[in-house]
Amino acid sequence: MDSLQASFDEKIANEQRIEPKDWMPDAFRKTVLRQMSQHAHSEVIGMQPEGNWITRAPTLHRKVILLAKIQDEGGHGLYLYSAAETLGTSREEMVQALHDGKAKYASIFNYPALTWADIGMIGWLVDGAAIVNQVSLQRTSYGPYSRAMIRICKEESFHQRQGYEATMVLARGSAEQKAMAQDALDRWWWPALMMFGPHDTDSAHTGQSMKWKLKRESNDVLRQRFVDQTVPQAEFIGLKIPDPELRWNEDRGSYDFGPIDWDEFMRVIAGDGPCNRQRLAHHVRAQQDGQWVRDAMHAYETKRQAREVA
Amino acid sequence: MDAELKPALIEYCIALGDDSVILGHRLSEWCRNGPFLEEDLALTNVSLDFIGRARMLYSHAAELEGAGRSEDDIAYLRDCREYRNLLIHELPNGDFAFTMARQFMIDVYDMAFFTELMQSQEPTLAAIAAKAVKESRYHLRRSEDWIKRLGDGTEVSHERVQAAFNQLWGYVNEMFSVSEQEQLLIDAGVAVDRSALQQNWHTAVQAVMLEATLETPDEDWTISGGREGIHTEHLGYLLAEMQFLQRAYPGQKW
Amino acid sequence: MKQQSLPLFEIFIRSKRGLDHRHVGSLHAEDHEQALEYARDVYLRRSEGVSIWVVRSSDITASQESDVASFYDPMDDKPYRHATHYKLPKEVDNM
Fold first, then answer.
1. Which domain, by its residues, includes B182?
2. pTM for this predicted structure
């Protein structure tokens, strides 16, 4: 036991990846599984707010971009479920945990996508924040997770850019369009900052995850990076970040920003955000509606195999 | 090609574009609602193919027209009566069986139609057709497999897919009835004589249905009118949703 | 509700001619044919490949952690199998 632990510790210390068949502490296995399934659920639930605008996309070009992007998210959910399945838990079990309220997903997706500008904002801010996190996770210590992240980062490079570009068109458009973009920024800014999770001093999982190198950089470091890269982007297109305390701090070489409403964060995480019930109900319904299809596939395959034997 | 055929050719491209954009739109409604994740991604790919096909056809129509209209003007600024798609494309998705039965019927049709269209005297149409055939070959492989799985799957799936074919059967004749204007293009070697495809379509569809233990619907009712802009009531809602932003904020860039 | 799990398949992609098939991930499908079709939708959305292999995950036999010593250690003492073993002058080092 001790030698197994020692070998595991050594791998972590030497920046080696932990692979599925390697021995790993139970707590490590549990944490990786929790993190990966949460990440997978986020991708899949994240299809919903954007999906809300597929049929209303304003041009055919925007429509195919949006479809391709949402499809990517489904694909990324799938990569992550696959990576998580290497730990011996099936996708069905993970989905069941989601439906039972035992597994979480990113709280940002519990906000409604009300106008077309929200689609640009989700790409720019939500994917922007996700990419900051995911780039960092490319070096995570669990091999399948790291490989999924590398693949996902490669594919997602267009997600944030298309969102920013769509926002830019609005910001430079009519007064109504500009107002639409500003309103969307006002509503998505703070939830986007919350995506990085609680402050390091309050984060339940951060310490151990950093030791295991599952998490490579802390919530606050990643959040600051996101703020620093996003503020100039907003200025460039003449949109205003909805934070009166936001200002450049020469000493730190970073932006200072105002306090995050953690009560709201906790409320949404706990299930009482604007769309939690809707998102989960949608996922449950799609799963249930598809049951007879999956049953039919299975029945057909069973018959086919029986015919082959006969 | 005769210059006097040009208006008919523009109409023809738009009508084919309408078939594609409307079906692509319907299929896009499945995104995030599929029976499982892999199928969700696959359906979205098919949707993307159809919307892409529509864009090529609309752009070509706009170019022929030379009046400064864009693909989006054609898609977003025409009302129900100006749309020219065959009715089967606009029907609401129903359940997965209905969507797949419709898809299968259209895929068999598209394979035959675009294979013929590759011979068109109009080079751009022939090129679009060549691309469409490649896509439809894959679509058909998928939808044919699904018909077999659903037809010969469980009792429930069998009943659902049989019911879907029964409901869809009345929309078949329209796919093969040729308008006068279209006949002019057929005579010029530009358009496909759809009426000539009907026999093979029935043979191909019924062969798969037979293997899937499904019965050919015993349905006399038929409906047509899409190519003349006489649609089902469903299309108006689809367009209202699709065109919302362009209508609510006219003349803006997006 | 009965949860019937679709079998898991491992997907290998040859990204271009002349390269090896490389493991890219997995997906669920009912049979090999369907796995191939879904592999196209799931892993080749950007034309990342020219050829796909699918293998039922349950058909893969993998070496175990405990085998590692006997599997790989005997290879560790043969550095001469690796190009880097041979130090060459830099004029010819791109060999």
1. 6-248
2. 0.92
